[in-house]
Specification:
It is a single chain. This protein is α+β, with helices and mostly antiparallel strands. The chain folds into 3 domains: about 140 residues, ATP-grasp fold, B domain (D-amino Acid Aminotransferase, Chain A, domain 1, 2-Layer Sandwich); about 80 residues, Dna Ligase, domain 1, CATH 3.30.1490; about 180 residues, Rossmann fold. It is about 40% helix and about 25% strand. The strands form 5 sheets. Strands 1, 8, 9, 10, 11, 12 and 13 form a 7-stranded antiparallel β-sheet that branches. The protein has a 4-stranded antiparallel β-sheet with strand order 2-7-3-4, with helices on one face. Strands 15-17-18-19 form a 4-stranded parallel β-sheet, sandwiched between helices. Strand 8 and strand 9 form a beta hairpin. Helix 1 packs across helix 6, helix 5 crosses helix 6 and helix 8 packs antiparallel against helix 10. The longest helix has 20 residues. About 35% of the residues are buried. One of its GO terms (molecular function) is succinate-CoA ligase (ADP-forming) activity. Belongs to the succinate/malate CoA ligase beta subunit family. It comes from Kingdonia uniflora. This is ATP citrate synthase.
């Protein structure tokens, strides 16, 4: 399961689109997304409520505490919304220690209300935790002792009896409404493969629930079965994170393949670089370098999995090697080409793409004093490792090759010893 955050606009869009299908009733949610390319007047022609109702505007940038940070404006007309957006669009702000420009806003009707409720659903391996409070809103943290939580194991029906502890202290006149809303939201959560959903707050408008603030995360590995339900979904980068050209290239490559290709530059000047097969293995290699005290020298996080073909591996390996060999400074560097023991992936086939890239980049590898450490197991691994050994001899770079007899963490230690050894 890969939890990916989505914008508030998309969280509300999905809730609105699927509430009637699952719960048999409409939610009167209205919202629009505003970016640099948006013409508000054209948008108002399509969404007439923008001109006829008082509005709320706030950044939709995957960070919270917008109200406490003075980034939420209430009870505005369309002209005031336009001025608010123009004043802040592209301006850099700092939130939670991360800096970045504001690029996306959400605009909604201003909803006067007296009641504020809190709802949170989080999934884990064994089920879902559901939390509810009748004291939601901006001060939820100060009232955390009033939040009630239940756990719903996977495969267990979410019934009225299950929900009862959450709503036990609600007034009778709204208890049934809140219960049905929580149960319906939970059904949507499960049906659309949400991994996290929070409404803080939601309120009641003419007796019907209405989410005012909402956050969501989806399991992006479930996109193959939900692409029609999700529609044109966006998985934005975390706030403050901007892709480099190389990261963007790998991201685009990843989107075009059924395999998984991930690449993030952590330190362009780092001297330990990784090219690891398997999501779990990639985390182990990166964590090991950090645990051994050399996180500051880790140049990247990289993962390829899902049996990419030779051409995809070639393009991927070219990018990793180009970054790892950039701006040589005379000091040794290490490239860890690792992985666990594959179940189905033909190791020799994926190594073919890497070997082609290493051969192409021979001069860069030598100029950067790169030492390569290989560890892999799985189908046809002996052939793959043998090809790697031959390559090292042919292009004349230090290349250590191990099979499953060597631990995954062992070559991380060798890489560290390499870069710390005397020249």
């Amino acid at each position: 399961m890969a939890r990916k955050k989505i914008r508030e606009y998309d969280s509300k869009r999905l809730l609105k689109e699927h509430f009637k299908r699952i719960a048999g009733m409409d939610l009167s949610i209205k919202s629009v997304q505003v970016t640099e390319s948006t013409d508000l007047n054209e948008l108002a022609d399509k969404e007439s409520w923008l001109s006829s109702e008082k509005l709320v505007v706030k950044p939709d940038m995957l960070f919270g505490k917008r109200g406490k940070s003075g980034l939420v404006a209430l009870n505005l007309d369309l002209a005031q919304v336009d001025a608010f957006v123009k004043e802040r669009l592209g301006k850099e702000v700092e939130m939670g220690g991360c800096k970045g420009p504001i690029t996306t806003f959400i605009v909604e009707p201003f909803v006067p209300h007296n009641e504020e409720f809190y709802l949170n659903i989080v999934s884990d391996r064994l089920g879902c935790s559901i939390s509810f409070s009748e004291c939601g809103g901006i001060e939820i943290e100060e009232n955390w002792n009033k939040v009630k939580t239940i756990f719903v194991p996977t495969g267990t029906s979410f019934t009225a009896e299950t929900c009862a502890p959450l709503i036990a202290t609600l007034p009778l006149e709204i208890k049934d409404t809140i219960e049905e809303f929580i149960k319906s939201v939970f059904s949507i959560f499960s049906d659309l493969d949400f991994t996290f959903l929070e409404m803080n707050p939601f309120t009641l408008v003419e007796g019907k629930p209405y989410p005012l603030d909402m956050r969501g995360e989806l399991d992006d590995t479930a996109s193959f079965k939900n692409f029609k339900k999700w529609g044109n979904i966006e998985f934005p980068l975390p706030f403050g994170r901007v892709m480099s050209s190389t990261e963007s290239f790998i991201h685009q490559l990843d989107e075009k393949t059924s395999a998984s290709l991930k690449f993030t530059v952590l330190n362009p000047m780092g001297r330990i670089w990784t090219m690891v097969a398997g999501g779990g293995a990639s985390v182990i290699y990166a964590d090991t370098v950090g645990d051994l005290g050399y996180a500051s020298e880790l140049g990247n996080y990289a993962e390829y999995s899902g049996a990419p073909n030779e051409d995809e591996v070639l393009q991927y390996a070219r990018v990793v090697i180009d970054c790892a060999t950039a701006d040589p400074d005379g000091r040794k560097r290490a490239l860890v080409i690792g992985g666990g023991i594959a179940n189905f992936t033909d190791v020799a086939a994926t190594f073919s793409g890497i070997i082609r890239a290493l051969r192409e980049k021979e001069s860069k590898l030598k100029a950067s004093r790169m030492h390569v450490y290989v560890r892999r197991g799985g189908p046809n691994y002996q052939t793959g490792l043998a090809k790697m050994r031959v390559l090292g001899e042919e292009i004349g770079i230090p290349l250590e090759v191990y099979g499953p007899e060597e631990t995954m963490t062992g070559i991380c230690k060798e890489a560290i010893e390499c870069i710390t050894a005397a020249a």
